[in-house]
Amino acid sequence: MKDFSFDVLHRGETLLYLCSYGTFDPLNYLDFLSDEEKARLLSFKHINRRREFTVTRILRHSIFGFKEICYDELGAPFVEGSGFISISHCKELVGIALNNEHKVGLDLETPRINIHSLQHKFLSKEELETFDISDQLEVTKIWSAKEALYKLAGRKKIIFKEELLLSKQDNGNWQGQIVNNDHDLFVNLDIFEFKRNIVSINKGPIVKQSRNI
């Protein structure tokens, strides 16, 4: 398909399927959508939303065929009988991460010029002191990593600057911490650049640690 470029990245035990795209007419690709998906596509008014929706289903089709993308009560996607998945998108890029063994959280971000004006909403006091917040790319990585953590948290109404925390390990890797009432969840993160975008995904399974309260 001339309008799309596909890549498959192996990140440990996780397969990351990516589809890059530009300007195209979604109506030319209705064969990749179910009847229900076609109706949903036509309900979107903005062309960018239509393209994003269509590319997600084209990428889905390349992995699972016509298996439906379903959503649980928290809005997390799944494909019946196909392991754990996570879906993300940014400008002209859609990704689907697949892991057969454990939950996966994926986020794609395009670096933003105004990211510093938002950092007070998601950076903790410790993160302000330990990360290079003068670097736009570093702050974008923090935001992206926390979006990936949010998808792993398994709940809503999370305060990003207090309940989704990041630290750098001695080996340079990033560790994420999800704070809950009586326990914490820890996970190692894989954060890298792909076609000038930031990709954040967990390296392995979540580790639960109880906390005395």
The helix/strand class is: alpha+beta
Given the C-alpha coordinates, what overall shape results? globular
Radius of gyration over all CA atoms, rounded: 18 Å
Which architecture of the largest domain does the CATH hierarchy give at level 2?
Alpha-Beta Complex
Task: Indicate how many domains the architecture comprises.
Answer: 2
- Number of distinct helices: 5
CATH class of the largest domain: Alpha Beta
Strand content: 25-35%
Uncertain spans, ≥5 residues at pLDDT below 50? none
Number of strands: 12
Question: For this structure, what is the CATH homologous superfamily of the largest domain?
Answer: 4'-phosphopantetheinyl transferase domain
Biggest β-sheet strands, sense, barrel: 6 strands, antiparallel
Distance N to C terminus: 56 Å
Order of helices and strands: EEHHEEEEEHHHEEEEE
Q: In CATH terms, what is the fold-level topology of the largest domain? A: Ribosomal Protein L22, Chain A
Q: Report mean pLDDT, rounded to a whole number.
A: 94
Q: Percent helix among the residues? A: 25-40%
